[in-house]
Design a protein that fits this description.
Elements: H1 7-33, E1 34-38, E2 40-41, E3 47-51, E4 54-60, E5 73-79, E6 83-91
Parallel strand pairs: 4-6
Antiparallel strand pairs: 1-5, 2-3, 3-4, 5-6
């Protein structure tokens, strides 16, 4: 006796037979969109990949911070119709010495629950404006050279401790409410013209006081007392 399957059963069986074929095609299509390629330099200087003898311009994915260069082996995604993206740089080309990390737009690096350390044989910072804000800062430098056009320091307390201080200035203007200076050795001022102006009292005191005038010594006052 010959039996006939229900139409719904036949449809389910046919769908089950077609399902692996559809999944395999989708997987194959997805696999075709990701591949490794060797970047080349285009006529306009931009990097490109070559497919079927045609140079196709590529775009860099946002997650690929290392700027791709000609000669790099990269991981690509996409098609010639939809666009090709460089997901990552797998191997740097031989002879490329500089590696550039590029982020477009405002960028912030955040480290939570840990420390951030930068180590390099030679470290350079270049910016139109640099701002540093910290509760406490410590600088330990073997040799320091500072070059600037204008320097302005605003602080509640400034303390300098060193073995030698040497300054070269065209002009110095100093203002303070109280100025106290202590020198344990020689304190010498060498100038063409010296003026000391005290509004109330000028007091010069020493175990020995010597005033030498090569041509003239003049003392003037309403009262002059010696002895």
């Amino acid at each position: 006796m010959k039996t006939t399957a229900h139409p719904a059963v036949r449809r389910n069986a046919a769908a089950s037979r077609r399902a692996p074929t559809a999944c395999s095609a989708t997987a194959a299509a997805s696999a075709d969109k990701c591949w490794t390629a060797l970047l080349e330099a285009g006529s306009d200087g931009r990097v490109c990949v070559r497919q079927d003898g045609t140079a196709l311009e590529v775009r860099t994915a946002a997650s690929c911070l290392l700027v791709p260069a000609a000669g790099d082996t990269v991981l690509c995604f996409g098609t010639a119709r939809d666009g090709i993206w460089v997901l990552s740089v797998l191997e740097r080309c031989a002879g490329a010495r500089e590696r550039v990390l590029l982020c477009s737009g405002d960028t912030r690096l955040v480290v939570e629950g840990g420390k951030l350390a930068l180590e390099a044989e030679d470290l350079h910072l270049k910016s139109e404006r640099l701002g540093v804000r910290a509760a406490a800062a410590t600088l330990s430098l073997g040799s320091t050279e500072f070059v600037g056009e204008r320097v302005r320091v605003v602080a509640g307390t400034v303390k300098l401790v060193g073995s030698m201080l040497s300054t070269v200035m065209d002009r110095i203007n100093h203002f303070s409410q109280n100025y106290l200076r202590t020198t344990r050795g020689l304190d010498r001022v060498d100038a063409d013209h010296i003026e000391c102006d005290a509004k109330q009292l000028l007091h010069l005191r020493g175990e020995h006081a010597l005033i030498n005038g090569a041509k003239l010594v003049k003392t003037r006052g309403a009262q002059i007392h010696f002895g």
